[in-house]
Write a structure and sequence with these properties.
485 residues; alpha/beta; FAD/NAD(P)-binding domain; D-Amino Acid Oxidase, Chain A, domain 2; 3 domains; 8-stranded mixed sheet; 35% helix; globular; binds flavin-adenine dinucleotide
């Protein structure tokens, strides 16, 4: 460990995850640690993901926010919570099946939220350095001991040293991609595990009352391989006449869709078509609310794989999108980022207080995140691969016939469904495609069981990691081969 560090903790990236990590570390250390958050944006634009804004669907389950509130005492209310919802409804491509995943949730205002997070952080003595784009990590003796970047205002190189650097710079993290220490952290993501996504924030006139297209009390998801190849479309209410509407696609599926249809559409064209095909949303107008300035249209990437197989190295940890935490099934990354950031604060304090910020000293973070959230993500990754390989007809059939009440309850709480209905129906299933679908659903359920068990056996120390990961790869390769599309 670097002997004379300026800070105990440097949090790289002052977005959603970064601000919670900092606050959590302050909470668990009773404000005894010297913590610095560094973000490339000016303070007024803290947490902005890209030039395009704070691009997000903005939806989060109340249970995730409660997780943070109950542990580290941070609570959110209006205006950062812009609109409450009662759950999510997913529609089949033919709109004949609607599955309601009930559970309170919030539609956040991602532009406003970082300002609330900033106030919370400043109150507990956290320092924030803005306008600073980080370019690399400072390494000494195979340990991360600081960060290097550019002061964007004065065009100067800055260096800051810390006992620990927490990487919260989001999915495109240059720090992770160029990581120079020896560690088990995976540096790059497979292109097929990313979704290209985009959304508008619109005010609009309501035309009719078809709740399958807009519901002020529910987040709507439209599954349709023509509308959003390898992904889905969403209509999330931000008020009675205000909406966050967009979609995500898997690039590979989008390319084959364009080829099949003889088209050359881009993501924006797809989103524009999606908006104009919505019969309820009339005269959409980009929101010019002060709360949405610079944030009413944008595209960005989101990962849909399991979290990084290892999230710690000597002096370095990954939290949030930089660790590929969004849920593989729906790309919901706010919940896991909140959970991981809350947990990480405790692990950071334990490591610093025991004077061991080595991979071994930080290892418990891997285990703690897996225990509270990460145990299920590999199974959901397999399920996502299956879904991406299905035709609209198969999705229609599957949603109509194969989802039991128990399965819906499982998906509602973010778990893999069991598809027990498939066994009961086995003699009644007509058509080779539907039989294959039934088999594949049962396969994902059984593979999920194996994967959850495997994650429950995540090695307690780094020594066992290589063997553990080999077995994980064996399971994933088998499933990937089965669902190659
Ligand atoms: C279109 C879209 C829709 C989504 N919808 C939802 C949804 O409805 N619900 C949900 O739960 N999740 C959703 N997600 C995912 C969710 O937005 C992310 O999981 C969440 O923002 C992750 O927070 P984070 O803090 O890890 O990363 P980010 O929000 O990306 O924050 C990273 C921060 O680090 C800063 N930064 C990056 N690089 C550097 C650097 N080199 N130097 C200094 N600072 C840097 C950035 O400027 C930013 O402030 C969506 C994502 C997209 C793209």
């Amino acid at each position: 460990m670097h002997s004379s560090c300026e800070y105990d903790v440097i949090v790289a990236g002052g977005g959603l995850a970064g601000m919670i990590v900092a606050s959590s570390a302050a909470f668990y250390s009773k404000q005894s640690l010297k913590i610095l958050v560094i973000d490339r944006n000016p303070i007024s634009d803290l947490g902005k993901k890209t030039m395009n804004g704070w691009v997000c669907g903005d939806a989060v389950g109340k249970n995730s926010v409660d997780y943070m509130t109950n542990r580290i005492g941070i609570s959110w209310s209006s205006p950062e919570i812009e609109h409450p919802v009662n759950g999510v409804i997913a529609y089949s491509p033919d709109h004949e099946t609607a599955i309601s995943f009930d559970g309170e949730g919030y539609i956040l205002n991602r532009r406003v939220l970082p300002q609330k997070q900033l106030q919370d952080a400043l109150k507990v003595g956290i320092e924030v350095l803005d306008n600073t784009a980080l370019r690399s990590l400072i390494i000494e003796d195979n340990y991360v001991v600081g960060v290097e970047g550019e002061d964007l205002k004065n065009k100067e190189i800055i260096k800051k040293t810390g006992k620990l650097v927490i990487d919260c710079t989001g999915v495109t993290s240059v720090l992770r991609t160029n990581l120079q220490i020896k560690s088990f952290i995976q540096k790059r993501i497979d292109r097929d595990d990313l979704e290209s996504t985009g959304r508008y924030i619109y005010d609009f006139d309501i035309d009719g009352d078809d709740k399958t297209y807009f519901d002020p009390d529910y987040c709507i998801i439209h599954l349709d391989q023509n509308l959003a190849p390898g992904g889905y479309g969403w209509v999330f209410p931000k008020g009675k006449n205000k909406v966050n509407i967009g979609l995500g696609v898997q690039q590979k599926a989008f390319i084959s869709y364009n080829k099949k249809m003889g088209k050359n559409k881009d993501l924006k064209m797809l989103i524009d078509e999606y908006v104009s095909s919505n019969p309820i949303i009339s005269k959409p107008k980009l929101s010019d609310d002060e709360m949405d300035i610079g944030n009413n249209w944008g595209t960005w990437q989101v990962s849909v794989r399991r979290q990084n197989d290892c999230m710690v190295g000597n002096g370095y940890m990954l939290v949030g999108d930089s660790a590929w935490m969004p849920k593989p099934l729906d790309a919901g990354g706010i919940g896991p980022a909140i959970i991981a950031a809350t947990i990480a604060g405790r692990n950071i304090v334990e490591a610093i207080q025991s004077n061991d910020v080595s991979e071994n000293g930080l290892w418990k973070y891997n285990l703690d995140f897996i225990k509270d959230y990460g145990y299920k993500t590999a199974g959901l990754e397999i399920f996502r691969r299956l879904l991406q390989s299905l035709s609209n007809e198969q999705i229609n059939y599957g949603m109509k016939h194969f989802l039991s009440k128990l399965d819906i309850e499982k998906i509602t709480v973010g778990e893999h469904p069991e598809f027990n209905t498939v066994d009961k129906l086995s003699l009644l299933i007509r058509g080779a495609m539907n039989k294959k679908l039934a088999d594949n659903l049962k396969y994902t359920a059984s593979m999920n069981k194996k994967l959850v068990e495997h994650y429950n056996n995540y090695p307690l120390v780094p020594d066992g990691f290589a063997d553990w990961q080999n077995i994980l790869f064996k399971y994933l390769n088998e499933s990937n081969t089965r669902f190659q599309n």
